Task: structure prediction
Amino acid sequence: MLLDGLNRNMFFLIAIILFVFVILIYRILKHKGGHYRNKLFDSLVKNSETIYLLCDHNKRDIIYITKNVYDVLGLHEIEKEKTELEIIEEIFHTPIVQNELRSWDGIKEYVTQMFSYHNPLYQHTRWIKIKIYPFLEGDSQYDVILVSDVTTEHDQQHLLVSQTKDIKAREQQLNQITSISYDMEMSVDVLTGEMNFHKLKEDATYLGNDTTGEFEHTFQEMVDRYILEEDQASILDIFSMDHFKELVEKETLDPISVRYRLKENPDTYLESTAFFTVSKGETKVTILTKNVTENAEYMRRQNALLQDALKQAEKANDAKSEFLSIMSHEIRTPLNAIIGLSESALEEELSTPVREDLDNINSASNNLLEIIDGILDISKVEKGILVLDEKEYNVAKILKDLIALTKERIGKKEIHLQTEIEESIPTSLLGDGGKFRQIMTNILDNAVRYTDAGQITLKAKGEVLKSNYKLTLEVTDTGMGMSQEKMSEILSDNITSNTGLSIVKKLIDLLKGELTVESVVGKGTTISVTVTQKIIDETPIGDLGIHKVRKRKATPFDASGKRILVVDDNKLNLKVATRLLEPYQVTIDKVESGQECIDLIQEGNPYDLILLDQMMPEMDGTETLKQLKADKKFNIPVIALTADAIVGKKEAYLASGFDDYLSKPIDSNELHNILKKYLQK
Result:
C-alpha cells in the first residue's frame, strides 16, 4: 500500500512538470529562432513514451500532434494502416473515456485511470492513460493532451499486488505455525527476576500447572521435580539468570535452545527456546517449550514452510526493488536529455525571453529530479532512514524556485503571495539544500491548501555567526488556522496527522534546525524554520527579483589526444554525452550496444576511458564489462553510466568491476571530476 501511494504521488508530480514543460516549449516556439527551438523540441520528444497534442478547446481542432504515435503504441511499419490521428480518435472513442469525458467540466485538469485498449493491429491488449490540461492563451482556450502507454506500469503494479497478497497469506501461515508448535510459555523479567509460567495447551502438563514467582527459585524447583537428573545441569546452566544477564550485556540476543528429557518418562523429549526482547530499556526473556519426541517429520515440514515463506518474502522484496530500479531508469533517462540539452542551449546566445523559458525548464527538471530521488530511495521507503547530503547550494535559487512553485499551486485561488527577502543573505551555503527545499515546499503547500483567500507571506532573513549563517524562513497565511492541540502535536515527536508536517519535523531534526508554530483558529498560521550552516560565498544575493542564478561549473581542461568511447542504446543520451565531452577536446566514439563496444576493443582501438550504459537490450553493461575483462590484457577504465540511481546501486556496480559510477542525468561537475581523475595525469 505504501508503494501504491508513492506511485500515485510520483506520477501526479511528473504530470505537473510535463505540463509546465510542454507549455514552455510551446511558448518558446513562438519566439524568434524558431528553427533551432523546433529541432530542440523534436529531439526532446523523439524518444519520449508520451504522445503530446495541442487542441483548440472551442473548435475541437487538433493544432499539433507529436510524430511518435506509432512508436509509443508499438505499431510496426506494416501495421500503419491508419493515420496517427485516426489511432488517437479510436482511443478517445473508447466507451470508458467517453463516459468520463461526459462528466468532465472542461476547466479542471482531467486524468483517466488506466484503461485497457485493444486494436486488431496489436498482438496484445495495451493499457493507456490520458491526461488533459486546459489553459488560456489570451481570449483562446486550449487543451494540452498527453496520451501514454502504461502497459509496463500496469504489469508492475499487478505483480506487486499479487506479491503483497502472497506475503499476507504467508504471515497468517507463520502465525498458525507458531500457535501450534509450542506447548508452554515462560516470561522472565531480567531486571526484576520475576517470572510467569502458563500452558499454551491444556494437556501440556510436562512442567506442572500455571505459576508465577521468582525465576531462579521457581525454575530450580520445576527442573528438580520434572527433568531427568542427567539433563538438569545443562538446562540450569543455559537458562540461568547469570547467563541471561551476560548475553544482554554483550548484546548477544540471538535465540538459545536446549533439549532435555522428562524424569517420569525418559523417552519424552522437550525442547525449550529462549527469545530476547528489548523495549524501552527493559529486557525480557520468553521461553517457549514444545514436545519434540515424535515430530521430526512434522518439524521438517514446518521448516520447509518457513523457508518457503522467507523465499516468497524475498521474491516480493526483489520485485519491489526491481520495480523501483526500472522506474528510476525510465524517468531519469528522459530527464537526462531535458537537463543536458537545456543546459547546453543556455550556453548559446539567446534572446532574453527564450533564455528565461529554457532556464525555467532546466529548473523545473532539476526540481523533479530531486523529488524522484526522494521517492525512489528504497532504503528510505522501507526503513525510514534519512541521511544528510551536504554540499554547496545557491540560496537565491531555492528561494526563487519556492516562489515559482507556490505561485503555480495558488493557481486561480484568490491568494496574494507576498515576499520579504533580506538582500544581505549570502549567495551560497554548505548544507543539504534538497532537504531544506523539501521542508519549505511542504510548509508552503500546507499554507496554500488551508487558505481559500487572503495572503501568504514568505520572509527570509538571518544573521552571520563567524563563518556560519543562521538562516530563518517564515511562512504566514490567513487560512483556517489550527488548535493548540494540533500545534502541540506538530512540535512533538509523535506526529500522526497527514499534514505533510510529519516529514518536516523529522527533516528539521536531521538538519539540527528549529521549528516554531503560531496559529489562531480562523485567522491563520505562522511557521518559522531556522537552520545554521557554513558560508561558502558571502556575496549578498541582493534584489531577488533581478538576481541571476549562475551554476558554478568546473572549467574544462584540454585533453587533446585522449579518446573516449561512449556506449548507450539511446541516441539522445549519446547526443547529451557528446555535448558535455566536446569542451575537453577529446576524440569521441559512440556505439549503441555492448557487442559493438566489444568489437571495437577486440579490433585494437585504443581508448583512455569508456562510459558504459548499464540498461541496454540483449547485453547490459555488467555483462559487457565481464566479457571485456575476460581478456587479461584489457586495462581501460570503465565508468558505469546509468539512470539506475537508487540507494546501493553505486556500491553494487563498483563491486561488479566498474572503476567508477556516473548517474543520469549527467551532472557536468561530476563528469569533470571523472575526466580529471582518469585523463589528467
Observations:
- Residues 446 and 499 are 7 Å apart (CA to CA).
- Residues 182-294 form a domain with the Beta-Lactamase fold (CATH 3.30.450).
- DSSP finds 21 helices and 24 strands in the chain.
- The first helix runs from residue 2 to 28.
